[in-house]
Structure formats: structure tokens, C-alpha cells
Write a structure and sequence with these properties.
Shape: globular
Order of helices and strands: HEEHHE
Helix content: 25-40%
CATH superfamily: K homology (KH) domain
Number of domains: 1
CATH architecture: 2-Layer Sandwich
Strand order of the largest sheet: 1-2-3
CATH topology: GMP Synthetase, Chain A, domain 3
């Protein structure tokens, strides 16, 4: 899931070198943390959070075949 989030985030931002994605596993839950440059934060979140919701929906669909729950957090 880390690679999927990283590819989507790098496609959205102006500074793809500043994209950092970390992944940790707790039982059947995978936590993915996305960190981008402050100037790109709006591009990743989108108006009213639409892009962030879309990223979470794609990751949820991709993780459903693995029987794992994935939480995507966008950090400052």
C-alpha cells in the first residue's frame, strides 16, 4: 500500500522529492502516513477534502483483496 500512496501523491504535488510515506502494521490494520511539503498540502487534500477521500477510497479498494484494513493519514 505504501507504494500506491507514494505514486498517487507524487503525481499530485509540485515537489515530488518531498513526499515521504511510512507504513506500520498493527494486527490486521496497516497505518500509512503521508507527509508532503507545506506548499503542496492543498493539492493533496483538495477542496473540501475530495482528493484525500479519493486516495483513501483507492487504497481501501486495493486492500480489500488482502483482508487488511488500511488507514491513510496526511500529516503536516
Amino acid at each position: 500500500m505504501k507504494e500506491l500512496v507514494e505514486v498517487m501523491a507524487k503525481a499530485l504535488v509540485d515537489n515530488p522529492d518531498d513526499v515521504v510515506v511510512t507504513e506500520s502494521t498493527e494486527g490486521k490494520t496497516v497505518k500509512v502516513k503521508l507527509k508532503v511539503a507545506p506548499s503542496d498540502m492543498g493539492k493533496v487534500i483538495g477542496k473540501q477534502g475530495r482528493i484525500a477521500k479519493a486516495i483513501r477510497a483507492v487504497v481501501k479498494a486495493a486492500s480489500s483483496k488482502d483482508n487488511v484494513r488500511v488507514d491513510v493519514d496526511i500529516e503536516d
